[in-house]
Fold:
Amino acid sequence: AAVSNLQHLAGRMARPVSVEQEDDFWNVRIGGTDGEEANAQAASCECVELEPYAVFVGKDYVGDGDETLGKSLMKMALYTLDGVRMWKRDLGNGVIPGVWYAPFISFDLDQDGVDEIWFVNNLNPNIPFSLNARVLERIDPLTGETTGQWTWPDNTIDDTMSHSYRFFITGGYVHDKPVLVTAQGTYRDMYLQGYGEGMEKRWDIKIPYDDGGARSSHLCPVLDFNDDGVDELFWGERLISLEDGHEVFCGDKGKYLGHSDIVVPFEDIKTGKKYIYTCREDYEQEGEPRVVTYNEKGEREWTAVDSIGHMHNGWIANIGPDYRK
Structure:
């Protein structure tokens, strides 16, 4: 697919392209406007510098910019509610487009009444897949200017390529005080950090791959599930307290070791009882259901679809005049 994308992009720019298969990779030659040729090898996951342009090749993904192939891939802009653009930033070749490579959030950590913008930046434009130059960056939303940078942990550096770039940023409140949460890892070892005002680190935890519990999910709500004044992070089928990072509970611990795509907390408006709906992707084991709903204590309320099936998506709906879930 990466080769097809290269051919498509070259055609869009009206440049000649040739493709040859050599052992375990494809060699793609793209002609430049000055008659010169540039080579790109579509193998593994790498960034190949080309003249007069650059192209990112990774599995079946190739990105392109506004006018050149692969340059100025990702941009950030802020608009008013009336559609007026206040500012625009080009994040450069080092920032790979994608929610797991460069997550961002608007969150008022310093409680000045303005939501700052936080995202994962890469300060080395020549090595987009390197973990060494990544930072958590804070942006002034009024100007788009950087107001702070902190080293982003490289604790997934020894993981597989697919699993190394699973980054996450979110936030919540502990007794009305904001806490910013950063995380790395989804399927294996998982690392989470909590920061208070002034970027003071409140807690730092590691959830090892062999801890006997479920992995994270792609949807991670934050809310005060047990009404104690402290928000919890729904990190897969486990709840993590934003106060100190401790595990409130982990559903099916010791039974289910896989990854849940979707985790959705909900409340029965008739009884006031709270539940957690989840659907599971992997770890297809005999006797382990693919869809599970827990009660507010993390105990199974009901299950569906036994043992087999990749449940990639699911949702909660209000049905009928009584708005039952």
